[in-house]
């Protein structure tokens, strides 16, 4: 049995009302260790929670009130700035503990920088078949600035260690190294949102990772690496709906929100709204 509860700090609660029996288990992961451009993602989990409290609990894509749905918000995982090994260790312990204790539930992780998806996916052992990534970037470099574990290499490490199929939406910023890697690894696919998304295999057990820089900076200015020509919120919701209709979701993370460079909390509000819409879809389908 994994001992893990002591690795969590109490925090504000997503949705303002706590329900320990809820099937939606929420954990904050304020990882902000390898950010290369603008640091600040460590402040995102609590800001997204605050933003959620300002929103109406109603899903517009499914026309559903979500007021009766509570969340089992466990707080934030303790991460030590400057000690990435310790961060990974704590994240893996907590996620393993959660999977042990809440086996049939949905796991929702509030980042933090994108690197956190790596220890999370190492720790979830629930037969995830397919990783769906919303990101402007591929994060498939082998190394970045001489380091193998950071936000620009995270998907490469995940692919190497898990060998799982990865599908990207909204990707639009590629390095030559990544394009070469893609050519040689056919399990990794990039879809433009205009493609027929029915081509995505259905009835698979999916983990969805949402890097908020997938959105156009006009809608999500508060990210660590903004990239022009991104998705509009409604387009994003349509793709998410299709994925959730056709697959079994195991876990979701929403990463790279950076409150220190945000404008009027727009990015935290949008992240919270996207999560609420996802909850609506999970309830509906
Ligand atoms: Mn990313
Ligand atoms: Mn990105």
Explain the overall architecture:
The protein is built from 7 helices and 11 strands. With 285 residues, it is of the alpha/beta class. The strands form 2 sheets. A 9-stranded mixed sheet has the order 1-5-2-6-11-10-7-8-9, with helices on both faces. Strands 3-4 form a two-stranded antiparallel sheet. α2 crosses α3, α3 packs parallel to α4 and α6 runs parallel beside α7. The longest helix has 19 residues. The protein is globular. It binds manganese (II) ion (2 copies). One manganese (II) ion (MN) binds next to loops.
What attributes characterize this protein structure?
285 residues, alpha/beta, nine-stranded mixed sheet, two-stranded antiparallel sheet, 19% strand
- What is the terminal separation in angstroms? 33 Å
Bound chemical compounds: manganese (II) ion
Class based on secondary structure composition and strand pairing: alpha/beta
Residue share in helix: 25-40%
Please provide the ordered H/E string of secondary-structure elements: EEHEEEHEHEHEHEEHEH
Task: Describe the largest sheet.
Answer: 9 strands, mixed
% residues in beta strands: 15-25%
Radius of gyration from the CA trace?
17 Å
Shape: globular
Overall mean pLDDT: 93
Strand order of the largest sheet: 1-5-2-6-11-10-7-8-9
Spans of 5+ residues with little confidence (pLDDT < 50)? none
In DSSP terms, counting alpha (H) and pi (I) runs of 4 or more, how many helices?
Answer: 7
Number of strands: 11
């Amino acid at each position: 049995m994994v001992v893990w509860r002591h690795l969590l700090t109490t925090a504000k609660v997503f949705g303002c009302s706590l329900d320990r029996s809820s099937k939606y288990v929420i954990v904050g992961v304020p990882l902000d260790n390898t950010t290369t451009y603008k640091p600040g993602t460590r402040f995102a989990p609590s800001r997204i929670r605050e933003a959620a409290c300002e929103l109406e609990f109603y899903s517009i894509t499914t026309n559903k009130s979500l007021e009766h749905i509570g969340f089992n918000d466990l707080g934030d995982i303790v991460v030590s700035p400057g000690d990435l090994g310790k961060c990974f260790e704590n994240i893996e312990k907590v996620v393993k503990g959660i999977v042990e204790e809440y086996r049939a539930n949905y796991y929702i992780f509030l980042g933090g920088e994108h690197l956190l998806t790596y220890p999370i996916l190492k720790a979830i052992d629930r037969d995830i078949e397919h990783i769906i990534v919303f990101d402007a970037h591929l994060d498939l470099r082998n190394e970045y600035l001489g380091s193998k574990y950071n936000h620009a290499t995270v998907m490469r490490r995940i692919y190497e260690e898990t060998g799982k199929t990865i599908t990207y939406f909204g990707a639009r910023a590629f390095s030559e190294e990544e394009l070469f890697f893609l050519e040689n690894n056919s399990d990794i696919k990039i879809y433009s949102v205009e493609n027929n998304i029915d081509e995505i295999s259905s009835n698979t057990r999916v983990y969805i990772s949402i890097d908020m820089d997938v959105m156009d900076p006009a809608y999500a200015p508060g990210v660590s690496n903004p990239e022009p020509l991104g998705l509009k919120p409604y387009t994003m919701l349509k793709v998410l709906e299709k994925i959730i209709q056709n697959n079994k979701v195991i876990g979701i993370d929403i990463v790279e929100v950076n409150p220190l460079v945000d404008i009027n909390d727009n990015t935290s509000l949008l992240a919270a709204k996207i999560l609420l819409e996802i909850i609506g879809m999970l309830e509906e389908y």
